[in-house]
Design goal:
alpha/beta; Rossmann fold; 4 domains; 6-stranded mixed beta sheet; 5-stranded parallel beta sheet
């Protein structure tokens, strides 16, 4: 658990009531404080938008609410990005085992967060398996551990809050769905509001104690109101017609599964309690839908987040009609005539249809003032992998030794492996111990598990956007293939970067990121035509490999070059391209060349480039999963 302020404990926290604007964010946090089983809040927004400030302020208010009810709790526990699973859920107390021979459990951060707030900053950068653990605990209110011979269970009811900057990467839709509520925040563009924010922050920094005292009454009133709502929430009634409204609303937006219905219901009940009412009404449901449905409509990493207010109005109206309608009686087991009833046009499907119709003209539309053709439809690609075995962050692309893989061996090296290999440790202790008696391992007996799984890589797309590639249908195919590879990179938890080259130079269209949504937006519009500076594209990729290796030595790079292999412009363009390829190879980056040549008479220049890169070459029409040859996997 970290300090609340990051400074001296004597410095007061910035008051929750002093957070300017962000009304929806503050409401979402309060509702989860009233009813933690909503499943927590995911706060999405650019840096510097008071995300962390609001969370820390809530923890202080919640702590006071517990105190007002004569109870303890409300503490803030921050989970660091580099935390291990043992640190999060707890593990065998190795010190007691080795020293006392006692089978003991050491609790983790989830136990410390019980009855408080568990805060994960940059949750999108946390490994998926840890996010799953957190969300399971938040949903069930309990943690059950079965590992390393330990069987332990404890309560873990907490308000889960995650913050993220979408530019730094997205959560998978499966994980997004597990968060109860989502709020998008952004800095106001209103000058008066921005001036008020600056004024308040400067006042706090000048005299934190006096500033906090100025808002003490407002925070105390908020704490008391949260305590009252928590006491009232169990008495709130959800009428059957409003329950039907929720079901019709979620069906209208075609969300997957039943989690959305349950979250909307819980949030509506919490909002009614927050208002001091004991019956849920339509207004409570609308507020709940605005917070619980936007992130559940994203079916694809390329989809824009959010919920259109007009669509929500239409859906609420139709859901109300469905809710007021009397439930139809159960049909006869064998109705005469055999046919089903005709579908009711007011059954809640219209908003989804309107959504599709509204979005359709935008998909693949040529950007205003742009020069690129609309990308061809995306498709499932076969896996491109980095040869050998790495040690990078857990992912789903290339082989690696990391903490999420399967155990394949044991090692006595203290700085190797991940986690204790219990059997090998006990075996070492037994081999050292002479004669019968209780087995007493010592630190020198400890063996660590060697695990092999998969890692995520840095996948650098180097896209030829020159005149030799600028034919409309060809550029459309290349863009569609690149988007397909981007989708694959997203699913495999890679970082991605996009470099285009045309004219006289190469351009970094997208620096390394895990946000495939931003990557797709950048890739949907870029200029084409001009000469083909292939050497500059390869050198830009080489420079990026060097820079990223300095930031993260464990993450290996895979350079995917989409080109027909031509090189034009300046003296000896082909010779300079060959020299650039040699420099890229010298950095040890793995490569794949996607041959985009479509001429009837082939020059096979892309094949030559692949040879110089020591990389497999794949023709554009072979990139699909069902068509790709074993050439790429053969390089592993």
């Amino acid at each position: 658990m970290t300090a609340l302020s990051g400074a001296s404990p004597a410095v007061p926290i910035y008051p929750f009531s002093a957070v300017i604007g962000h009304d929806q964010l503050r409401l979402a946090l309060v509702l989860c404080a009233v009813r933690p089983d909503i499943g927590g809040v995911l706060i999405r927004g650019e840096k510097g938008t008071a995300k962390s400030t609001a969370v820390r302020g809530l923890a202080q208010v919640l702590s006071a609410a517990y105190a007002a009810a004569g109870d303890g709790g409300g503490q803030l526990v921050e989970l660091p990005i580099g935390a291990t699973e043992d640190r999060v859920v707890g593990s065998l107390d190795l010190q007691k085992v080795l020293r006392d021979g006692e089978h003991a459990f050491s609790p983790g951060l989830l136990a410390k967060a019980h009855r408080g707030v568990l805060y994960v900053d940059e949750v999108n950068l946390l490994h998926d398996h840890l996010v799953d653990v957190l969300l399971d605990a938040a949903a069930m209110g309990r943690v059950h551990i079965e590992r390393d011979g330990v069987s332990h269970s404890h309560d873990a009811r907490f308000v889960l809050i995650g913050t993220m900057n979408p530019e730094e990467g997205e959560l998978r839709p499966q994980l997004l769905d597990r968060f109860g509520l989502t709020v998008d925040v952004a800095a106001s563009r209103d000058v008066d509001v921005r001036a008020e924010v600056i004024r308040a922050r400067l006042a706090y920094e000048a005299d934190p104690a006096a500033f906090a005292q100025r808002y003490a009454d407002a925070d105390a009133e908020l704490s008391a109101r949260i305590a009252e709502a928590r006491a009232l929430v169990s008495q709130v009634v959800l009428p059957d017609n409003e329950l039907r409204r929720i079901a019709a609303l979620c069906a209208a937006f075609d969300v997957d599964g039943m989690r959305a219905d349950l979250v909307v219901a819980r949030t509506a009940v919490a909002h009614a309690a927050w208002r001091g009412e004991t019956t849920v009404d339509e207004g409570d449901i609308r507020v709940a839908a605005e917070l619980a449905l936007p992130h559940r409509r994203r079916r694809d990493p390329f989809d824009d987040p959010g919920l259109d207010p007009g669509q929500l109005d239409d859906a609420m109206q139709q859901a109300g009609e469905s809710a007021d309608r009397e439930p139809e009686p159960e049909p006869d087991p064998d109705p005469p005539g055999g046919g089903g009833e005709p579908q009711d046009p007011a059954n809640g499907d219209a908003p989804q249809q309107n959504s599709s119709q509204q979005d359709a003209p935008q998909r693949g539309a040529a950007p205003r003032g742009g020069h690129s053709a609309a990308p061809s439809p995306t498709f499932k690609t076969r896996t491109l992998v980095v040869p050998g075995v790495g040690e990078g962050a857990p992912g789903r692309r290339s082989r690696a030794r990391n903490r999420t893989g399967s155990v394949i061996a044991a090692t006595a090296e203290p700085d190797s492996g991940h986690g204790m290999h219990v059997f090998a440790t006990l075996l070492a202790a037994a081999g050292r111990q002479a004669g019968p008696g209780a087995l007493r391992p010592v630190p020198d007996d400890v063996h660590r598990a060697v695990r092999e799984g998969r890692e995520g890589n840095l996948v650098i797309f180097v896209v030829d956007a020159s005149g030799s590639m600028a034919a409309r249908d060809r550029m459309s195919a290349v863009s569609g293939a690149t988007l397909s590879l981007l989708r694959d990179a997203y699913q495999r938890r890679d970082k991605v970067a996009v470099i285009t080259f045309r004219g006289q130079d190469a351009q970094v269209l997208l620096p390394p990121t895990t946000s495939v949504h931003i990557a797709s937006r950048r890739l949907s519009r870029f200029a084409t035509g001009g000469k083909t500076p292939l050497a500059q594209g390869l050198l830009a990729a080489r420079d990026m490999v060097v820079r990223e290796r300095a930031r993260d030595r464990a993450r290996r790079s895979l350079v995917v070059v989409l080109t027909d292999g031509r090189a034009t412009g300046g003296p000896d363009p082909l010779g300079r391209a060959r020299a650039a390829a040699a420099r890229l190879v010298a950095e040890g980056a793995a490569g794949v060349v996607v041959d985009c040549e479509t001429s009837y008479i082939r020059l096979d220049l892309a094949q030559e480039l692949a040879h110089r890169l020591g990389a497999p070459a794949v023709r554009l029409d072979e990139l699909r999963a069902e068509n790709l040859t074993a050439l790429v996997k053969g390089a592993a």
